[in-house]
């Protein structure tokens, strides 16, 4: 069944959703995006995703020609056009059509498109039993280069780490920052639980401030866990009681082995399971309705 795609003010069939080969998003990875989830007829954390999109656009001087409310309606209407109540949404903004040079001033108008479809990042057995991951050599981008807090279309840094992870026999990897501290996975944030504390790297360590990350931190605080954003090393993961990843596509998934070291009991931990259950409950009530019926 053909999907309906929003593209620059129109809804078109996926086979008609085309952009120019001169679009700077294609030529240079010049643009930003958001991955958003819809659950139970609601768009989860929609305000937070849209706020991050506009913050990133401002930072890279990209003019979004839709208001925040108009952008939210684009997402909702894309879901309605495809009759989706549970979906993964990819909202993309590129610098737009230009020439073969780098100058963004040659791109008079941004390209905006929105796709809504189904997704399952990992098979269910990995949610049940946990992930095995390795650390890779590719370091996370530094804050002084392409700041990891930008959800940029230029994902080559993450892709190279993903390639390395598959070469080591795992489907996910942990990336370190330039100082050797743990940053994040190739597309997800990372958490450890140690001595009653939930610990995750701070944004200045070179991580994306994930929407799911922030939601899980709030849920953990409600459970009485002390939540800390602080630097930590691989040694801290190896000696942790539990470890898990969070992301819009991944949701919450346990990590049971890192670099050959078994984490905790070698099974998804009880606190990880509790936070996963809390997260699933939150998705039932958070966000605007797609269909009003």
Write a structural description:
The chain contains 8 helices and 15 strands. Helix content is about 30%, strand content about 25%. Strands 7, 8, 9, 10, 11, 12, 13, 14 and 15 form a 9-stranded mixed beta sheet that branches. The protein starts with a strand and ends in an 11-residue tail after the last helix. It has helices at about 25-30, 45-60, 70-80, 125-130, 155-165, 210-220, 235-240, 270-280, and strands spanning about 5, 10-15, 30-40, 40-45, 85-95, 110-115, 130-135, 175, 180-185, 190-195, 195-200, 225-230, 240-245, 250-260, 260. The mean pLDDT is about 95. Helix 6 crosses helix 8. It is of the alpha+beta class and about 290 residues long.
Count of DSSP-assigned helices: 8
Strand content: 25-35%
Low-confidence stretches: none
Q: How many distinct beta strands? A: 15
Core attributes:
alpha+beta, globular, 293 residues, 6-stranded antiparallel beta sheet, 9-stranded mixed beta sheet, 8 helices, 15 strands
Compose a concise summary of this entry.
This protein is an alpha+beta fold. 28% of the residues lie in helices and 26% in strands.
